Fold each of these.
Amino acid sequence: MPDRAKFRSRPVLVAVLVSVLCCAGLAGFAAITVPVLEVPLIDPTNTPVINGDTSDKAWSTAKPVTLMTAHGSDFGGSGETEITVRALHDKRQIYFSFVWDDPTKSDEHIPLVKKDGIWHFAEISQDANDQNDQFDDRLAIMLAHSQATLIGGAIHLGVAQFAGVPKPISGRGFHYTSDGSLLDVWIWSGVANAVSPYLQDDFIGAPELPNAAQAKGVERYAGGIAPDTPLALSVPNFKMVQGTSGQELLQPLRLPLPAPDGAFAASLSQAAKLQGEGGDASAPQALTEDQTAPYSSVDDALIPDGTIVPSVVVNTRSFDAGNGVKGVAKWAGGRWMLEISRPLVSGVNDVSINSGTLMWLAAFDHAQTRHTYHLRPLKLELENYG
Amino acid sequence: MANPMKPIRPWPRTDFGTVLLHWPLAASLVWLSLTGLRIASDDEEFAWLRNLDRILPSRQLWLNHVIAAEVMTGVVVAYVVYIFLARLTSRVKIDRTRLAGLTGTPRARWASINVLICWGLFVSLATSIVTGWLCFVEFDNTVLLLHMYAALVLVLLPVLHVLVHVRIGGLRQLARIVRPSALAIPEEESDLAEIVAQLLAEQKSSELKFRQARTKSPKRAHHA
């Protein structure tokens, strides 16, 4: 058996060749098994209604793709949830439906509670920047052009990042891209989108330079993630002030408008949950700018103990100029259903969508930062487009 | 001053293939450990790993982790092929003699312990590689947890592997891994029945040739 002898006489060479073949096979497998989301072309007269109800006939033509997302917080203790995605387009708009399991509907956002005449955060954990309880459910959708192959290019874990930049308050890290490339991020929020049809439209790019307040650590520095326009969908509704005896006190920035008869309780019950008797647990846990007025100690004195107001105020002004992402969600039977639409070609700091665009999804179960994720993106394939 | 009467003991060497495959394996293991520990440090239960913040990488964690995993997978495959082709499986064979070594002389005991550590490495490597690629394809928390624990074992066992080698022969023993030698592939083990069969076949063949020669030679004589 001379061939066998030859084969055995060069074990290193044979082993290295087998190894190279194995690595090439793995790389090839990774490339050809990228999950693909087919996006059928539909007639513009047959588009789905964006209302959180996915029973529209148009959706029947879309092939669903299910992704397992994991490593998040809660979701019944598992930390993972499957998200089923479908998509359609009419050459002008793209429509998405997302369905994911979430055993609990959470629509609070670290609310402020008045007790003994003083405002407090409602039962929050020690780490004020890594809440996993009094927070709303959210879904984040990230889009990128096809050069990115794995999640991670925009995630930089760790405290020690780079010189001249504040440390992350949560201690977990920042979102930014090292090469300055741009990723589009849409965030549907259980609180904000209970009163606004527009999703928060952010982008992730190169890290921003911190402003003076961020450099001092007074204001949160967010790395390379920022809203597309200065008009954020929701803004914090509190600040810390010095009390009469020098202690730090929490103070809302805006208070609900009083009802015509001057009673705050009636007004609050329309927009914010009231503790105790007369409370309206089904009311959305959000206040809009139109429903609020800037804080005044006179109005504050009229608000009874036990009142809860949201810690964010939602901006309901039109975002069409820079933000065309609209979405409505419904929760039923332990499952969220979200419908979204956006122009294929969009505005500043957006990723225009065409065949080859990559998509990642992250679900938050009443968690501030601990969302689920998946490594490999969904690759969009649009019928008769791009 | 060296004693001229004392015989010079040459530093031991290891076959070229083992040396060649050890270093990319070690490099990929270090890089996988650093990126993996950083990824794990984001978990609430592993937040203590943030104490290593200054030495853990931060950029393109998952991409670097996957590239290093590909290198490790390739080297492990190469090593398995190599030890079979080079007939070196006896180095890591666990048999009665090896187990008896655990209660034998110190050298035999440490050599046996090293083989057991090698098998621990093989199992944790196989588990880490399989669960790691499963996580890559379909992210699942149960598989991820298994991957994390297998990887933690994989970080610890190479340290023990090195320490045991130090215990066996000190720095001279460790230096083997940087001193390659040509591979001398041992002959295959002889099978008595096979040898007898081969001898019989050879005998039969020579008898046949002899007979053929005898039947041909008178003719030649006749023609002559």
Amino acid sequence: MVASTESHETSGTSEERRPVVVVQDLHVEYRVFATGKRATDADRGGLLHRAKRTRTVHALKGISFTAYENDSIGIIGSNGSGKSTLMRAITGLTPATRGAIYASSRPSMLGVGAALIKQLSGQRNVILGGLALGFSKAEVEERYDEIVDFAGIRPFIDLPMRAYSSGMTARLKFAIATIRNHEILIVDEALAVGDRKFRKRSEERIREIRDNAGTVFLVSHSMRSIRDTCNRVIWIEKGELIMDGDPDEVIAAYEETR
Amino acid sequence: MTPTVDDPQAHGLTRVGGRPPLGEYLRGVAQRKDFIVSLAKFRIEAENQRQRLGMLWIVLKPILNAAVFGIVFGILMASTKNVPDFVAFLIIGVFMFEFFSACMGSGSKSITSNQALVQSLAFPRMALPISVVVQKFLQLVPTVGLLMVFLVLMGHMPSWNWLLMIPLTALYFLFCLGVAFITARLTVHLPDLSNLLPFITRFFFYTTGIFFSFDIRFEGMPKLLQIVEYQPVYAFLSLSRELLLDSDPLYDVRMQFWPIIAVWSIGLLVIGTVFFWAAEERYGRVD
């Protein structure tokens, strides 16, 4: 009797914060064809031995953490540490070799660039990008003006995208990608796009999304933008989780090693 | 250091990146129909956008194609004099074959040449091969219209049979969709296939009877002719000729082609769909 009431009590008051993403002992391995010569003669093989010349890259080696509602988590680490692989695994684009990821809804990545066709006008690309994000045609048309105005490219909307400057392209991509309300959002270095004016606006938009969204992961090399937007930082190095905690502490420890 | 992790199931979380069951998957594909059609249309537009003649190339290409084959096989080789209405025979073959070879060629690359897209956005990957086939189909329709204009100009009057080109093209669409699903997945496993496929397409081209008639070439071998009828592309092409032309007994409609193309189309579509879906998780992988 006593035990059962106790368990009721704990389940009622256990969590003040709901976990939205749980990463459990995540391993990701890539198999790649090694090109170029082997270091020693003994390793040399002919054409027929080619298949054996694959190398396994162990990109993530057992990462575990839990992200809660309203967390904004900065992911830091040097180049090739596995940050982007981790983000791709969280969105489900890169399958886990071992371990698993659980989420309350499918996390989405802030990136739409690959869906666009640069020979076509900005107008066509807004529609295509919106559809690629999973909107219906009517929904994209509804948001069309908002996207174009946010990107600030109205005078150029009829020109093909290949005529755009890199800043304009980046702004357009950002504007399309952020029209969605995301419950779990992953931003990969997106804050660095455009000129100062646009950067300010985009940071504002990210904050807005964060308020509506719940959980944001931000991958960035800019410690400033991580400090500004995140309440928690995860530091990854060579596929392993080095530190997870308060931004100031983790960033300080990270910068000491550089 | 092993951090403690909450029990995910207890909080109603679901596993990310798993492949949904087939029915749910196909519903997801259907929800993306706007994306599929727009991608197809916009790609046609992008293809033709920089050319001065623009969209006109959709019909100009098959005409030039037919002209080249007409000159080579109709005049230079002159091996086909005994085919009645050779020009009509040839252009129907060339125009219709083009769709199959385009779907096989671009369809096989629909995943591998869109790696960036596959790795950055989550959507049912089947949208990509479908979009390719829709794109080629949108190019086929005006081509068939043009074909009919040519036939009228050459003195072949329209008959009720011409209407049957509609179900035929519909089945052809489903057939090529199946082909695209299968080759798209195979190319992901075996990138070498993209080098091999042009040869397979060419082999089909020369053995399907585009510029010669099987029925005339192998007149004394009824067994062989019977077997050839089961070759799907041959069946599609022959039936198109028989529906569109009626100037010679060679073009009498062989009703047995209908069940053959129907079984091939539905069968290949079902097999291709399951085959493609089964590897859904594989397409985003980098290796």
